[in-house]
Amino acid sequence: MKKSTLFIGFTISFLGLWALVSINPIDIGASTNLTCKPGSVSGAYHSWNWGIPIVQNKLKNVEVEYYLNSVYGKQVEFEKLQAANSLEDFIVDYPSNWIKEYTSVDLSVDESSDVVSGSNSKFTPDQKKLIQSVEVGDRILLEVNYKVSNSVTGVTEDRKMVSQFIVVPDKQAHYPGDMEALLNYLRENSYDQIEDKERLVALSPATTVSFTINEEGKASDVEMAVSSENKILDKLLMKIISEMPTWIPAENADGKKISQKFQFILGKQGC
After folding, report:
1. pTM of the model
2. H or E stretch at 225
């Protein structure tokens, strides 16, 4: 009797602690895997926030997935952060209803600033000053230490939750037309040039090109954040990103055009 093997490819979409659309607290020691569901997206620029793959190609059971991330992590709009006086003000569904006792709440910016501590979710004057000093592109680092009663033993336990947010413009940069146009541009200019697709998708972390869309909507500061380990392919990827058609640049709340960072990821990559 002939045996046949059914190959089923699937990915599991899971958004972790304090994602801006769905939040569930996670202990810092918990093992959490974030992956995205492959497929094309049309006209949904907000999807970039989660690294939704914008195209997937198959060759002999090898999948090469294309992602575009608008920022390198969870995000918060600049104006919303500036107006915030507590964690609840800028983190959607912040779990204040079940955190009964805080040990400390620590805030810092880009790992280089001093840590400013508070005693609960409300900002201290120093924390508010730190928040108001941030700029678009800065990374806010947050650590919440708290106590919780174990529902089984009744013993009070120390817990910790951590997260980080990228400060993004109020109006983010976007490719002209729709996502399908960008999908076609990236696919047509790179996919056929990838000779060893199996090796490419096996790389971890995945091949990544970082770039900035400047105030004129042009790609700048293009560099290989993670090499494909193939100099010719690296050069090609940087070329097609550098030569992309002009984007609609990001703007702040006053309508001033500003730059914004992005990542182009090729291979297999979680959110």
Report:
1. 0.61
2. strand 219-226
Question: Cβ of 8: how many Cβ atoms within 10 Å?
Answer: 4
Cβ(85)–Cβ(123) below 8 Å = yes
> Domain boundaries in the chain?
45-70+172-267, 75-168
Indicate left, alpha or beta for 58 from its phi (over 0: left) and psi (-120 to 50: alpha): beta
Q: b/e map of 217-226 (b: 16 or more CB within 10 Å)?
A: bbbeebebeb
Residue 48's closest CA among 66, 31, 27? 66
Digit-coded pLDDT (tens) for 80-130 = 999 999 999 999 888 888 888 999 999 999 876 789 999 999 999 999 999
157-174 per-position pLDDT tens digit:
899 999 989 898 888 888
Distance separating alpha carbons of residues 65 and 52, to the nearest angstrom: 10
3 state DSSP class of 9:
coil
